[in-house]
Design a protein that fits this description.
With 194 residues, this protein is an alpha/beta fold. The chain has a single domain, classed as Rossmann fold (3-Layer(aba) Sandwich), CATH 3.40.50.360. The chain contains six helices and eleven strands. A seven-stranded mixed β-sheet has the order 2-1-3-4-9-7-6, sandwiched between helices. Helix 1 packs across helix 6 and helix 2 runs parallel beside helix 4. It is globular. The protein starts with a strand and ends with a helix. Bound molecules: flavin mononucleotide. Flavin mononucleotide binds next to helix 1, strand 4, strand 10 and helix 5.
């Protein structure tokens, strides 16, 4: 039986439920699935495919980038899919980068205030800006695809510096933007590529 790992990193906890939901969908395909936080993953040897998910936290979660760097050699042989949780994404029409297709939750991207002229915050929140460090971390391997989903932000659960960053830079409203239909649809597509 095929064995797939869904590994995740989180800052405030909401990505855990997303990882569990992705695993649940994959498991419907007669596949054995492990769901683990990245720090509990010692080796990838026994897996036929890996899904790695983590939120944007002033750039993609540092631990998740470190995980990709650490296992970049393994990912030359083991297929990888990545998902990114975010509260802010600029609508730019980008559909891939370096041949890696993007899957974007249609409810997440917002059009720029002035068409064709992005302000600094809109430039920061471009999908290519979020994806570039992910692709660099795993190179020369490449993920099969990268998905971007709306995340969940509860200011009451965060330290003051995190609130400041999320309010000033991300300019994200608190709330739960997780689109379970989009998450499940993407997860359903994974057994075919992993
Ligand atoms: C300190 C901090 C920085 C964040 N940075 C970004 C960001 O750069 N871009 C973005 O779209 N969302 C950003 N977010 C929103 C998170 O990615 C989102 O809330 C995510 O769902 C959190 O997942 P978690 O609950 O698993 O930590 C940030 C949130 C925090 C608290």
């Amino acid at each position: 039986m095929k064995k797939i790992l869904v590994a995740y990193a989180t800052h405030a906890g909401s990505t855990v439920e997303v990882a569990q939901t992705v695993a649940e969908e994959i498991a419907k395909n007669n596949v054995q699935v492990d769901v683990l936080p990245i720090d509990q993953v010692k080796t990838l040897e026994m897996y036929d495919g890996v899904v790695l998910g983590a939120p944007m936290i002033m750039g993609w979660h540092r631990g998740a980038l470190g995980f990709l760097k650490k296992h970049r050699n393994a990912f030359r042989k083991i297929p990888l899919a990545v998902f990114v949780m975010a509260m802010s994404l600029t609508q730019t029409g980008e559909t891939s980068m370096n041949g890696v297709p993007f899957c974007i939750d249609e409810k997440l991207p917002k059009p720029p205030v002035i068409e064709g002229k992005l302000n600094w915050r809109e430039r920061y929140a471009q999908v290519s800006n979020y994806a570039r460090p992910i692709l660099a971390a795993v190179a020369p391997a490449k993920p099969m695809n990268i998905a971007f989903f709306g995340g969940c932000l509860q200011y009451g659960r965060l330290k003051w510096w995190a609130v400041l960053f999320a309010m000033v830079i991300v300019q994200a409203q608190a709330g739960d933007k997780r689109n379970w239909t989009a998450i499940r649809a993407w997860a359903t597509s994974l057994p075919a590529v992993l």
